[in-house]
Specification:
It is built from no helices and 9 strands. With about 110 residues, the chain is mostly beta strands. It has one domain: Immunoglobulins (Immunoglobulin-like), CATH 2.60.40.10. The strands form 2 sheets. Strands 1, 4, 5, 7, 8 and 9 form a 6-stranded mixed beta sheet that branches. It is elongated. The N and C termini lie far apart (about 45 Å).
């Protein structure tokens, strides 16, 4: 199966990441319409020169219109900034969100 890759998540809104405390990073996203969605994948990288790696998967909760909330807690003890991205699989298309960053353990902005 061939899939088209696009840099947009048209049905995903408000993808956010923030450090809760210590090594815990809270990743959330919300969807408006999950029709045709196959799965969501949370990706992370520690340095901008490293590739993103999968750290979690979520199945769609609904195949209908309406708001749906998702959350994922990542154990991340990295001392420098980390970056997160949401990869969304639809029937024959893969969408990527923009990357969001968090400060490392023990650092504040």
């Amino acid at each position: 199966m061939s899939a088209t890759i696009r840099n947009s998540c048209k049905t995903t809104i408000d993808f956010t990441v923030h450090r809760l405390s210590g090594a815990r990073v809270y990743v959330t996203w919300h969807t408006v319409n999950e029709s045709g969605q196959v799965r969501f994948e949370v990706l992370r990288r520690h340095k901008t020169t490293e590739p993103f790696v999968s750290i979690g998967v979520a199945e769609p909760k609904s195949q209908q219109d309406g708001f749906t909330d998702y959350s994922f807690v990542d154990t991340n003890e990295y001392r420098d900034s980390s970056f997160y991205c949401l990869k969304k699989y639809a029937s024959d298309v893969i969408f990527y969100s923009l990357a969001k960053g968090v400060e490392g353990v023990g650092k504040t902005r």
